[in-house]
Amino acid sequence: MIWEIMALANKGVFISHIHRIFLAVGHIVYTRIFYTSLLNTVLIIAMGISIAVIVGIGLAVVMSLNDFCRNAVEPVLNLIRHIPTIALFPTLMALFGVSNFARIVLIALNSFPAIVISAYHGIKSVDKSVIEAGKVDSASDKKIMVAIKIPLAMSEILNGIKIANGNGFVAVVVAEMLGASSGLGFMIMWATNAFDYPEVYAYIFTLSFIGIMINKSFDLFIKKIEGVIYA
HEC states along the chain? Predict the structure, then answer.
C-alpha cells in the first residue's frame, strides 16, 4: 500500500506501480539474456568464493596450528575486513581490464575474511575431549585435523561461506554496474540508462528472490551436514 501511494505521488516515473513491476518480471524471465546474465554472475561468484574457500580454510588451519602465523595474519585480516572491497574495483579494472577476472578477484577478496574467521573459530572451538580421544588412538596431528577438527568445524565453515556468498552477490552486482559488459548488474544499469524503471525493479526483486533461495539452500545443507556429523 505504501509502495503504491509513493508510486501515485511520483506519478509512476521513478517508483513504478507494482503491477508494472510484476509484468516486467514476467517479461525478463522469458528472455534469453536474463539467464545468460544470471549464469555469468553466478559463475563469477562461484569461482571467487571457491578461491576464497581453498585459501581461507588452508590459512585457518595454519593459524590454528601456529601462534606466530595467527599473530601475523590477524592484523592484516582485520585490515582487509574493514576495507570496502568494492572501492578496490576501479584499481582491479585498471590492472586486469573490464574482465571477468577482475570481478573474480573482487569476490575472492570480499569473501576471504569471513571464511578465514569462521573456519578458524570453528576449528578452535572443537571439544578438546574429542581431540584427546583421537590422541589416545595414536592419531597424528594431520589425521586429527582432517578427520576430527575440520569435520566438526564444518557447520561454522559453511555459515562463513553462506555469509561470504551474500556479500559476494552484492559486491559482484555493484561491480557489474560500475564496469562490465555482462551480468545482472550490467542489465540493471542498462535498464536504468533506458529509463525503464519497472525493469530495474524487476531485476532487483528477482535478485532478492534468488538470494533468498540460495540462503535457504545453504540452511538446509548446513542442517544436513550437522545431522551427518553429530549422528
Answer: CHHHHHHHHCCCCCCCCHHHHHHHHHHHCCCHHHHHHHHHHHHHHHHHHHHHHHHHHHHHHHHHHCHHHHHHHHHHHHHHHCCCHHHHHHHHHHHHCCCHHHHHHHHHHHHHHHHHHHHHHHHHCCCHHHHHHHHHCCCCHHHHHHHHHHHHCHHHHHHHHHHHHHHHHHHHHHHHHHCCCCCHHHHHHHHHHCCCHHHHHHHHHHHHHHHHHHHHHHHHHHHHHHHHHCC
12 within a domain of the structure (yes/no) = no
Model confidence at 212: pLDDT above 80: yes
Report the distance separating Cα 231 and Cα 229, nearest Å: 6
Q: Would you say the C-alpha torsion 181, 185, 191, 192 has a positive or negative sign?
A: negative
Model confidence band, residue 154 (pLDDT cutoffs 50, 70, 90)? confident
Alpha carbons 175 and 134: distance in angstroms, whole number: 46
- Please provide the average confidence, as pLDDT, over all residues in the chain: 80
Name the packing angle between helices 18-28 and 197-229 (round to 10°).
70
In a domain, 158, yes or no: yes
Is residue 2 in some structural domain? no
Model confidence band, residue 33 (pLDDT cutoffs 50, 70, 90): confident
Provide the domain limits for residue 186.
32-229
